[in-house]
């Protein structure tokens, strides 16, 4: 049977891609660049724990999205959930916090209504080959 091998890209559709790209860069640190050929915004997310990189993009929604059309939630792994949540709350964003058996989460929505989940393990991984401990 064919199977999924990993994530290639996260593509968000937005009514205002430029504003949403700026929001993701400022609030979540996901920088993108506008492609002059198609007007879409493209970036990459590197997973330092697995060594994998995948694409992050924001495309213009055609036709415009409605509030009822949001069926996808992206979960981002973060290194320090508490610090991330404090930073977002300090900017006036409202988050919902959850603690489950497999980690801690914070949920919010971007300005276009897309649900976002931030996730962190309760403990750090044992080995990080890309970022060795500092002496």
Task: Tag the structure with descriptive keywords.
135 residues; four-stranded mixed β-sheet; globular; alpha/beta; 2,3-Dihydroxybiphenyl 1,2-Dioxygenase, domain 1; 34% strand; single chain
Explain what you see.
- This protein is an alpha/beta fold.
- The protein has a single domain (9-64, 72-120), classed as 2,3-Dihydroxybiphenyl 1,2-Dioxygenase, domain 1, CATH 3.10.180.
- Helices cover 16% and strands 34% of the residues.
- The strands form two sheets. A four-stranded mixed β-sheet has the order 1-4-3-2. A four-stranded mixed β-sheet has the order 5-8-7-6, with no helix packed on it.
- Strand 7 (103-109) and strand 8 form a beta hairpin.
- It is globular and about 40 Å long.
- It starts with 8 loop residues before the first strand and ends in a 15-residue tail after the last strand.
Q: What is the element layout, followed by pairings?
A:
Elements (H helix, E strand, L loop, with lengths): L8 E6 L2 H12 L4 E2 L6 E7 L4 E9 L13 E4 L3 H10 L5 E5 L2 E7 L5 E6 L15
Shape: globular
Please name the CATH topology: 2,3-Dihydroxybiphenyl 1,2-Dioxygenase, domain 1
Which superfamily, in CATH terms, is the homologous superfamily? Answer: 2,3-Dihydroxybiphenyl 1,2-Dioxygenase, domain 1
Judged by helices, strands and strand pairing, the structural class is alpha/beta
């Amino acid at each position: 049977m064919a199977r999924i091998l990993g994530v290639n890209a996260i593509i968000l559709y937005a009514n205002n891609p430029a504003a949403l790209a700026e929001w993701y860069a400022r609030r979540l640190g996901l920088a993108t660049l506008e492609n002059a050929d198609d007007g879409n915004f493209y970036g990459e997310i590197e997973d330092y724990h697995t060594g994998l990189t995948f694409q992050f993009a924001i495309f213009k929604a055609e036709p415009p999205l409605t509030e009822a059309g949001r069926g996808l939630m992206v979960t981002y792994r973060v290194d320090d959930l508490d610090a991330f949540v404090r930073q977002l709350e300090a900017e006036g964003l409202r988050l919902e916090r959850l603690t489950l058996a497999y980690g801690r989460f914070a949920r919010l929505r971007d300005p276009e209504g897309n649900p976002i989940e931030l996730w962190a393990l309760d403990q750090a991984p044992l080995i990080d080959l890309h970022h060795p401990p500092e002496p």
